Amino acid sequence: MQAAEAMPLTRTLVIDLAAHERKAAAATRRFPCTVSSETPVPRRGWDGTWNEILSHSRDAVDLSRAPLPVLEGHDRSRVNVGIVSGLRLDGGRLRGELVLGASSRAVELAADIADGIVTGLSVGYTIDREERDEKAKRITARRWTPYEVSIVSVPADVSVGINRSQEPHMPEPIVPPPSPAAPPVPPDEATIAERAAQAERTRGSTIRSLVAKHRLPTTFGEDLVSRGVPLEAARAAVLERLAERDAAVPTDNHVRVEPGFDPGDDFRAAAIDAILLRAGVHVEKPHAAAGDVSASVFDLAASCLSRAGQPGVHRGPDLLRRAMSTSDFPAILGGTIHAAIRLGYENEPSSHRAWVRAVPVPDFRDQTRLLLGSAPELDEVLEGGEYKNGAMDEDSTSYKVATYGKIISLTWQVIKNDNLNAFVRVQPALGQAARRLEADTVYDLLASNAGAGPTMQDGTALFHANHGNLVANAAFDAAQLGKGRALLRKQKALGGGHLSLVPRFLIVGADKEQQAEILLANASRRATSEKVTPEWIANLELVVEPRIAATDVYLAADAGQIDTCELGLLDENVNGPSFAENVPFNRNVFEWRVSHNFGAKFIDWRGLVRLIVT
Q1: CA-CA distance, 420 to 415, in Å (whole number)?
Q2: Whether the Cβ atoms of residue 335 and residue 283 lie closer than 8 Å to each other
């Protein structure tokens, strides 16, 4: 067992859609797919070709990055054309739904998939923990993380693909319990020698992989291996060599070619993190080589020119202008700004995300949401009798996403003055502004109509006596919270029948934060002969939002029980504002469009209770 170096890998899948299914799926641009399987795939390493198997046991796949973005040809410099959502393990496979967006390119791809022209997908992933079988030449990934899914042309794993998610479920094999372990036997000399040989093979393989990952000469790695340099010392030597080497692109015989591994992407990722760190922007997991890449604009420009095969010039009047003609330099500048904006978006406090359901939406059209009521009551069916039809009551509401954005500019003077630090530090504020705008939209709706909330589909305000979700002239204490809980419990579905909703969140403004904390703390203590706070209050999740008025307190059910408020984000904005280059007439200014597309709507009043406290 050994931990593998985190390195981007890919697997190629096959789109296999029947004609009638292709036409049906093309209308919605949604295609069921199987992302990965346990089919062995050959991987070429320094010590020959190995068969790699991705384990699909319950604890093997890290889905923390789901939903996965859909790219074209693993090109991470472009905005994704869709996502793969609904990921789940089923029968030794990772299944999901391929959802293409509303951009012109995404529509073209959906049509080509429907016509059977585009037939390949490729999943990009990293291996976090692997197990090697030297005799069988087999690597089993015991823990791995999918990062993205790309549309490509050449398939490798033909056992998976699109429209194969409805295959019969294959239960995981039942492994018999191990037999009682025998008393440990001291290893003999042969075993000790074999273990030492295995450790030596592991050391050599790890050093060679490390050297290849950073595109250093193979002779350098072989020298470390032959001299018996310990692994930690070898890592230090690699870092020292990275600091000394120039930016020239290595020749092919110095590079290990890995499927799906783009050295250009690796260089750009390290440079982006280096600029962010130099500007004082916190990066939780910076690139391993970020500390070895110069964040100076002039040094990066020279490196990009060298990588593009142009003469390396360290300083010169046209150095920066020439670098802008390469693919790397403008991509690094744009990628740095985009990363800074995303970091600001992710780090901005967002209380609304605790109790509001956030969902991706495919386009700008009306997003219709059905409110399903209770099923009809079951009738007794006598022997030989007839079953009667019954219908479910339903209601619906809809909303649209809106576009919010800015154009940000990077002047030629800032670039020439190598003054990116101050410029980059400003960019997280744009991401923070996008997250705050979401919160403003949700809480403005909540406080509209003088606190009664928006008008719902039945023509009545969100909080109203007719909706059974309003407690007026209430004290902020356990008794009044109990009244609110009772109202949630008594809510009925459209066709009748109690929903039995349970409060999950206690939502208050900053003025009531300390009182709320005292209530929750008292509820967590054991009962005494004195005043008792019910234990259920201790289970509430406290949400504090300064936008909420001092007179308002809310109890909310979990979004998994009932739809209350929905935040819809365009597919490309699920992880934050999208980012695209804007080409101005004056090329002395470089511009990028930052846009955030979202909408919010209160779907149902039954999962939320308002207490007007005195």
Answers
A1: 7
A2: no
Using DSSP's 3-state secondary structure scheme, residue 90 falls into: strand
Secondary structure letter of residue 4 according to DSSP: P
Tokens of 409: 């500019």
Within 61-164, where are the H helices? 104-114
Render pLDDT for 173-221 as a digit per residue (tens, 0 to 9): 334 455 555 566 676 777 777 777 777 877 888 888 778 777 777 788 8
Residue 244 host element (H or E):
helix 231-244
Tell me the two tokens of residue 285: 């997991």
Kindly write down the DSSP assignment for every residue of 159-205, as one continuous string. T-EET-TTSPP-PPPPPPPPPPPPPP----HHHHHHHHHHHHHHHHH
Question: What 3-state DSSP class applies to 20?
Answer: helix
Output the DSSP codes for 328-377.
HHHHHHHHHHHHHHHHHHHHS--THHHHSEEEEESSSS-EEEEEE-PPPP
Identify the residue with better confidence: 143 or 12: 143
Mean pLDDT (whole number) for 130-147: 87
Nearest to 45 by CA among 206, 256, 199, 224: 256
Per-residue confidence (pLDDT) for residue 10, from 0 to 100: 64
Do 155 and 208 lie in one domain? The reply is no
Give the count of domains, the chain: 3
Contact 118, 100 (CB under 8 A): no
| Domain co-membership, 59 together with 144 | yes
- How many other C-beta atoms lie within 10 A of the C-beta of residue 430? 22
Q: Are 238 and 210 contacting, i.e. CB atoms less than 8 angstroms apart? A: yes
Q: Report yes or no on 175 lying in a domain.
A: no
What is the per-residue burial (b if ≥16 Cβ within 10 Å, else e) of 81-111? bbbbbbbebeebbbbbbbbbbbbeebbebbe
Average pLDDT, the chain: 79
Place of tokens 């390396």: 312
Three-class SS of 259-317: CCCCHHHHHHHHHHHHHHHHCCCCCCCCCCCHHHCCCCHHHHHHHHHHHCCCCCCCCCC
Query: In this structure, is residue 518 part of a structural domain?
Result: yes
Q: What gap in Å lies between CA 387 and CA 378, rounded to an integer?
A: 10
pLDDT tens readout for residues 231-287: 777 877 877 777 666 444 443 333 333 444 455 677 888 888 888 888 888 888 888
Please work out, in degrees rounded to the nearest 5, the angle formed at the alpha carbon of residue 288 by the alpha carbons of 297 and 286: 70
Q: Give the amino acid at 409.
A: S
Q: Is 228 helix (H, G, I), strand (E, B) or coil?
A: coil
114, 17 contact by CB (below 8 A): yes
Domain that holds residue 141: 9-162
Q: Do 508 and 416 share a structural domain?
A: yes
Q: Do residues 428 and 343 lie in contact, with contact meaning Cβ atoms separated by under 8 Å?
A: yes
Q: Which residues contact 77 (CB under 8 A, 6 or more apart)?
A: 268, 331, 335
Q: What integer is the mean pLDDT of 548-573?
A: 92
Residues 209 and 132 in one domain: no
Question: Any idea what the CATH number is for the domain that residue 579 is in?
Answer: 3.90.1690
